[in-house]
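[step 3/7] inverse_fold.run input=structure_tokens len=199
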């Protein structure tokens, strides 16, 4: 079935958007498995022609960077969903688990990102701004609720959980990530105005 086209003969925006999202979805899966996954394989599995593929992503670097940005935005968007569904403390802890899953399962993507940004003249790795902003919203919501100590910045929080990126995607790794995040959460709760002082 041919895609619907507008008056100029170009595919409608919705078709173009679906193609782009499908490419990103396949690229994430392929690059996570194999940092050197050929672009031709990604295009074939996404069900798009080379022309469509390169219109969206003119280079390997452009694709890898967009996959990274897209995934980071997905993680960031999860913060607002969780804040709508749960109390601030539970939302923060659940979001930390999502961030851990993202970190542990994206080893191949991390390798692809390093390759894409390490060559001379290559673009810089995008700053984790959406994730930092999401962390900030979760921290402020908890601070207002009195469930964490006041004054914790998003930068401090992300630095505290940076060890997640060293944990591999295996059963022991998941247990280790849970212990690490529980320790961080205990530290955030310490000195919270809504909690009794022990000792």
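[step 3/7] decode complete -> sequence:
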């Amino acid at each position: 079935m041919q895609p619907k086209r507008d008056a100029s003969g170009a595919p409608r925006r919705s078709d173009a958007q679906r193609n782009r999202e499908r490419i990103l979805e396949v690229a994430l899966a392929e690059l996570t498995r194999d940092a050197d996954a050929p672009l031709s394989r990604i295009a074939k599995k996404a069900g798009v022609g080379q022309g469509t593929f390169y219109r969206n992503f003119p280079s390997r670097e452009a694709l890898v960077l967009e996959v990274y940005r897209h995934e980071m935005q997905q993680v960031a968007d999860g913060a607002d969903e969780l804040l709508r569904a749960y109390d601030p403390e539970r939302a923060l802890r659940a979001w930390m688990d999502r961030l851990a899953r993202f970190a542990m399962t994206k080893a191949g993507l991390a390798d692809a990102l390093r390759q894409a940004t390490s060559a001379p003249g290559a673009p810089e790795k995008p700053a984790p701004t959406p994730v930092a902003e999401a962390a900030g919203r979760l921290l402020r919501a908890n601070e207002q609720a009195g469930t964490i100590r006041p004054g914790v910045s998003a930068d401090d929080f992300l630095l505290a959980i940076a060890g997640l990126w060293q944990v591999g995607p295996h059963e022991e790794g998941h247990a280790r990530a849970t212990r690490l995040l529980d320790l961080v959460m205990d530290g955030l709760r310490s000195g919270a105005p809504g909690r009794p002082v022990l000792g």
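[step 4/7] annotate
Confidence is low (pLDDT under 50) at residues 1-9.
Residues 60-85 form the longest helix (26 residues).
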